[in-house]
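Contributing new complexes? Match this layout with zinc ion.
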Amino acid sequence: MRCKICRKEKAVINIKSYLLSLCKDCFVDRFRRQLRHTIKQYRMFGPNDRILIAVSGGKDSSVLWYLLTEMGYQADGLYIDLGIEKNQYSLRSKEYAQQLSQSLKRPLLVYDLRTNTGKGIPDLKGHSNRKSCSVCGKIKRHFMNKIAREKGYDCLATGHNLDDETAALLQSTLRWQQHYLGRQAPVLEEREEGFVRKVKPLVRFTEKEVALFAFLSQLPYLEDECPYAKGATTLFLKDILNQIEERSPGTKLAFYQEFLKIKALFQRELPPPNQCMICGMPTTAQICSACKILSPSLP
Ligand code: Q46
Ligand code: ZN
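Output block (do not edit by hand):
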């Protein structure tokens, strides 16, 4: 099959939702253009902003860091060492993050959970994998926000792609969780009370597109899943969405984009948060969820 744009080269991908087959060069060009467009469309950041990228050693955050650096943004990396020893997961993912930092010549901040709190995710996890991910998600969000604020970054960028966003959207929709629906967006504005601005520049790309970009650009990244990912609800929902996409190409993008048009219906004025009695970070309770996880004996 020939590329539909240049009509010369052999196609490497068939994007069914656009009825578009593309060769290597046309695919990576289009990827870059779409990323620029997304950043502009949602006014994610400007050329003078300092961006902190949550880097995991995986494909999404690696592609994001690589491209933002190539586009001339001041983007530094933040790697949170979760202390996951199984399959040497944390050790190996950190090595990939460090390798990318060196090749991009951009600083990588490393926050070691075990050194700083005395506990890694395996020590904090509950009885099931589902519990590990929910604990891990809260801990990561807490320290990413804290570090981005303390170091004075203008925004925190994550590598969430269209598959991640539609899986989260499906999960919230199935239970009509208005609080989550009201807060799901490509940009979460900074709130004075201590939440840094959060942006997701890869929201338009499927996991498959990001993986192909990483492969074609020969970007080194850790292909293994986290050992706790097995059985996670998100993977199950992604699988269902992929089956729907297979039968009806374009559904994922439409699901997400049409949701953004009606998202205001779910937005609620939030009461000003309290300051956590332990760490001072914003929380709706007296003690934030991260401090509760780290000190389970607290009330
Ligand atoms: S790192 Fe953490 Fe993920 Fe591992 S424990 Fe679950 S949430 S799967 S992105
Ligand atoms: Zn706290």
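Reviewers usually confirm one structural detail per submission. For this one: Residues 276, 278-279, 281, 287-288, 290-291 surround zinc ion (ligand 2) (CB under 6 Å).
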